[in-house]
Amino acid sequence: MEVHTITAAKLPKSPALLRRNFRAFCSPKFLTLSSLQTPSSTTHLKSEMGSNKLEFPTKRMFILGMGYVGQFFAQELKHEGWEVAGTCMSDAKKKVLEQKGFDTFVFDAMEPEWKFLDRLRCCTHLLVSIPPILDIGDPILQHEDTFKESLVDGNLQWLCYLSTTSIYGDARGAWVDENYIPEPSSNLAKMRLKSEEGWLKLGQDLDLSTYLFRLGGIYGPGRSAIDTILKKKEMSERQKRRATRNFTSRVHVADICQALKASISLHVQRKIYNVVDDDPASRAEVFALAHQLIKQKWPGLIGATDNSINSILLGGTEKRVSNAHIKKELGVKLLYPSYRSGLQSIIDNMEDPLLHSD
Ligand SMILES: NC(=O)c1ccc[n+]([C@@H]2O[C@H](COP(=O)([O-])OP(=O)(O)OC[C@H]3O[C@@H](n4cnc5c(N)ncnc54)[C@H](OP(=O)(O)O)[C@@H]3O)[C@@H](O)[C@H]2O)c1
């Protein structure tokens, strides 16, 4: 089989030329599966004429920010035959992600190098998982023109920006849905709201199916109250403040992935969804259950219930966030409707913490 190799240096540089040629570069007819699995800046173009014709997935996800959710989602998509590429901020993490089979680019939006844009142009879907930075704003949208210009006439069809329910502010315990007027109180939440507006506009300008997902507190394997207790981590000042809330909405990472996949198969122009479970609860309740579950599974492993959490006075009521729309419109059936079933599944699948400790 004839294989042509085009190095990044040989790719046309002018945006106009790039646009004219990139559809051909990205076309499933030309781009091989192996080339996309090769973690390098080299793009291989292969003739289809050989006997071992390769099948090419038509769905290619790019994840800006392969953090906790990004990696979990990437793994699920990979199992379903998607090509997944994305960014992280360090060489060490890039290496780990490449070992898992994801073509990864090191990218720091504060000192941006746009090497990943050629690859992003070839993707059909884009998940944005990079948070805003205090006093700066959205780190990507700071470079909106460069970013947008390079995606015009690209392959992208779908964009989802991961936001947070903190944009709603304190609704004094009331239920809030997506139509509730956001009243962000912290500066970071105000920046988040601006990021939402910016990504919605960018999606609209590029004529993409555009989603904003407002996520509750994210937990799942490796990141939960159980992990915090077992690691004996001290609460940060921000966590202590959040712990005073009577209600915090949460969501298991597997349910975020469900909602993302459901939105991919729905073709709408733009839509905002709260992605949370059914059971907003205080941090103290969640930690009390986590303690109980650990003690049941590994008696003697931990001491008495952590008083630093129990002694926190509730009173920062906040809001209860409604998930009715993801159920009704996206057809999501939550795998973990409550932190109770979520924590239970985490501990059921956890190894004995003493197994690998010296
Ligand atoms: N944690 C929560 O409970 C919660 C709740 C609601 C919403 N959210 C938001 O939902 C999104 C996904 O959450 P997550 O928990 O998966 O986040 P995460 O694990 O912190 O991942 C964030 C990703 O963004 C990258 N990143 C951060 N700053 C960057 C910058 N300046 N330039 C380039 N890349 C940058 C990180 O790089 P590295 O991989 O190299 O670190 C990481 O890949 C985030 O926007 C988060 O703020 C989080």
TrEMBL record:
InterPro entries: NAD(P)-bd_dom_sf (IPR036291). CDD domains: SDR_a4. It comes from the Eukaryota. GO terms for molecular function: isomerase activity. The keyword NAD applies. Gene3D superfamilies: NAD(P)-binding Rossmann-like Domain. Keywords: Isomerase, NAD. Belongs to the NAD(P)-dependent epimerase/dehydratase family. This is NAD-dependent epimerase/dehydratase domain-containing protein. The gene is LOC110724771.
